[in-house]
Records
---
Amino acid sequence: MQGGSREPSKRRNPRGIEGVISLTSLCEGERGVVAYAVGGFGLVRRLADMGLTPGVEVKLLRKGSFHGPVQIEVRGVGLALGYGVASKVFVRPLKAKPDG
Amino acid sequence: MVKPRLRIALAGNANVGKSVIFNQLTGLNQVVGNWPGKTVERAEGTLFFKGYTIRIIDLPGIYSLSAFSMEEIVSRDYVAVEKPDIIINVVDASALERNLYFTLQLLELEAPIIIDLNQVDFAAKKGVRIDVEKLSEALGVPVVPTVAITGSGMNELLSTVVAVASGERELKPLKARYGKEIEKRVQAIEKLVSAKLLQLCTVYPARWIAIKLLERDTDVAGKLKNYENGKEVLDYAEKLAIELEKIHGEPSPVVIASERYGLANKIAKEVTAIEAPPRISLEQKLDAITTHKILGYPILTGVVVSMFALIFIGGNFLSAGLEFLFENLSLYVESVLSSFLPRIVVDLINNGILAGIVGGITIALPYIVPFYIILALLEDSGYLPRAAFLMDNLMHKIGLHGKAFIPLMLGYGCSVPACIGCRIMETERERFLAGFVVVLIPCAARTVVILGLVGRFIGLHAALALYAFDLVLVFVLGRIAFKVLPGEPVGLIMEMPPYRKPLAKNIFVKTWSRTKGFIYIAFPIIIAGSVAIEALALSGFMSYIVEAANPLIGGWLGLPPETGIPLIFGILRKELTLILLSELIPLESLTAIQMIVFSLVTMIYIPCIATIAACAREFGWRKALAIAVIDVALALFLGGLAYRLLSLVMAT
């Protein structure tokens, strides 16, 4: 269904840290704290430049259909990440708290 | 006395309003819009203020000064090498933290900056109030709050520029220090750099070189290769970078970016007061609906279809009205001119020049102006990034990502800016891929032909079918190109700017400046083409060309032999095909099949000269010619095929 170049969706937690899931596994509206990102040097650096550095809180706003892109909010800015990119960012989900 | 001159540059993140400020300051019409990445070429202008001649340059919007993209390298080299007198760092007040991340990097470059805190109105609406004084203190540079879109604060901005330039106001820029682990290594490298790379240090600050080396910046590392001691410094920096990575377990640029963001966050927090808790606004609701995983698509389809329907209805209405106005002009001019000019001159003027002007006004403008208005609305509202988000998945199938959908949409306006707009794609390969499909999108000129011929005489449904067919074609060809071209596809990382209410004034200004551009560029060509055709007809050469091209035009495509001429001239401008055709034969005399085949061929064959030139500049002549040849072959092949298939279908 997907192009051959895509990451498999469930490549979970390559660094084996407990409680860490891929950004694409967050539910819509759920928050998480970035643990790390995997992938090429250029990609990881670009993500950091856009504010996705370890320790930062992100909120997953919505997911596109059929493994589509995700829209997140990070550092007060809306960001769209392709599915392949988002699945390389790993987060620690935060306990649900009432959305203010 | 020599008038003092200043060179200033506008720098900042994408979509913070740099181009708006540029236009406000210079009175020029640099294209603006609510999507990141518009300014792909730096624009320059001059203004006069308090006796100063100020040369101002609008740099492309970037998020960082790393070596991620060409734009970033170009921008930082401009700042470091050209050393403008002052850099106005435009900062989006509603996204202070991310913007300060960039500001901190400008400070690392030891650039003389002042901050333009823009969109303070929008931030206030979000309940964010920024203490300008405090921010100025924290950064050690002046901060001027502005609302560029209304022009508020522009005078203060220029006054501040002049005050700093004249030395009246001193800059005491923040010297940011990193945490111990990083700082120790930066300073160690800096020491070595200033000792060993004297020449490079006259251009770039030693500390900045050190930071970049620790970040493993490939561009700076490349510069070092030319130096005798370069290798030694590089090896040392590499060693320290590895140490740093061992401590933190992250690539060194991520470690450094984290700290920089940490500082940006700290400053932003100190100077920001959240007055009202953010409520769910109308904009957010609109955002949620238009990017919804199911609802988003019918909305996108609706937007695109109603766009063409509106252009069609508006265009037909205007076209009919204008034709009525000009109906008797030609007869009148002919009768006046005939009294004192020889027949052949009268024909050249009347059927050449006048017919060209009238054709341009009655056939092209009625469809192009409504189009520009709608395009401006789409651009300014912020819908384009939403469309890009929705289309990301599909674009991946042709080896691109969602962002490519933006130049694709622009392509419906004009292929030239669309081609240049492909620069928002990150890699060379993607730029070319995007460029290849973008020129296949029917631009406004081709829309003139499709709507003005097929739409008008057959019906909107047939015209829309042509557009739909074109999309399928784009997809199929894009898919083939994707498979043929070597390289890895890149994923989508794109800012989603908030929705904004488009301002009527800006829509008008943008539509006007584009229409003006169209008239200046297209009308001379339309008139020249029109005169050339009349000359061909009068001299009798026309019949030779028609004869020679007939096997292809009449035999293969099933078109009246005369259509060969407009199709040749259409290389100059696509709308010329229809205008010239209307001068040669009555459009109504074409059969439905001929109209479709003619429009189909016009839609696909060779992008016009201006587009080929733009492609050549972006991708090189070889690739530009390859695109042109492929498109011509494809147009003729599909045209002939359509003629045969449609004849078969119609017969049964």
---
Amino acid sequence: MPHAPVAKHEPSPWAIEFRGVGRTLPSEDGPKSILTGVSGRLARGRVLTLIGPSGAGKSTLLSLCNLLQTPDMGEVFIWGREVRTWLLAELRRRVGLVMQQPVMLPGTVADNLAVPSRLHGRPQPDGYRLLQQVGLDPSLLQRPAAELSGGQKQRVALARILSNEPDILLVDEGTSGLDRESAEIMERHVRRLVASRSLTVVWVTHDLEQARRMGDETWLMDKGRVVEQGITEAFFEAPQTEIAKRFLRAGLRADRRTLAPGEEDES
Amino acid sequence: MSLWTLSLTLAFVVAAMLVSLWQRLGLEKDMLVATVRATVQLLLIGYILKFVFHVGNLALTAAMVAVMTCVAADNAGRRGRGLAGRFWRPFVAIAATEVLTQGFLLAGHVIPVRPSYIIPISGMIVGNSMVACGLFLNRLRDETQARSAEVWTLLALGANPKQASRAVVKAATKASMIPTIDSAKTMGLVQLPGMMTGQIIAGADPIQAVRYQLLIVFAIMASAAITSIVLGLLTYPRLFNRFWQLLV
């Protein structure tokens, strides 16, 4: 793909755009390619589900969007601006990342929810409303965050990101540690945000049913490449590539078997 | 004490070497090197100090303090495992500590402006500052590694390097001050500090010796704090690259 000048500032219809993105990491047996030639784009208010086997590069692709990792090749545009030309604090405020393992910061739930506004020098958020947004009981506010269950932590982590008022949300296996009910609550709340404020979402999951439920578009990744991109319904109904057909067959047979957490490449 | 009586104390070294040989600790060679180095260095410094005190020149005194600071910074830099760079960050931290602490003692007329006061007290301040540097750098790296998930989480929320590293810098600062505080707590109960012991043996009034020792205790407490804070300000940016990604 040709390189566009980075100086363009007009609002872009594309929330996220990858142009020939590559990422290589050093390893014991020489440089290892994590991502190769990834291109594609996602419009505002759309939900992209990203599927593929462990180690396909899904988490790495997410972490390029808010520059927690730097692409070695190609460019990543957020709202039409290359990530490396953004003010970092602003980029990461607007592109929120829900990590696979939620990390609670020291203090209470309320302290955790107050962190983003403190970082960005903004007024304290309404913790009550934030917890309601993710379906948690506001009575949790004064509880030490470390004492919560896994599902509660995951939702507090989501609420903490929402207090930044992001317009793009990246979810990395956000529900893999949750029971089905908690996972569906998460899905519902994210879906509601997509509808109410045109949140753009990239949702990485091993759960094919979830990918189908949540997605407007779906990309299948394998060995660092995007092997198929399409509208979610079409992708699941009529996959085009042999590799996608095989992956879907294997995945559906395994049903809701989840791969061991931590196998996915870390961001 | 004559050189003859002093040489009798080499019996201690011989005893330690015999233990090492007997237990096959393999430390005899190190002990020999240590004994020779300590002897040569101390005898040498004895003559240098005698000369400096005799001349009584302040520029010469300052030069000696500068040399001490450089050696201490070099030593602390080795312990930093790359975090502090080779030399100049520990140097700035130790020098700032020495200038502030010693400056206060001199400006307040707590000690007289004489080489025989300035040099030994500087030695203690600089030595303590060097230890604090090493502790701080080790702990900063360990804390950052242990709490990297927390640091990454803050970065992902948009924290800048200063905000993201605040908790780990604080923990490292605390850790580097604890030994100084602990030794101050047991001072006089567990051990009689070296300076006081020396003064008493040299015939000083114990009450006077205690006063000087207290001065040192207070000064090194301040110096541990100053060192960690200055070094923290100089090193936290090195935990991150220009895209605010954690490197450690």
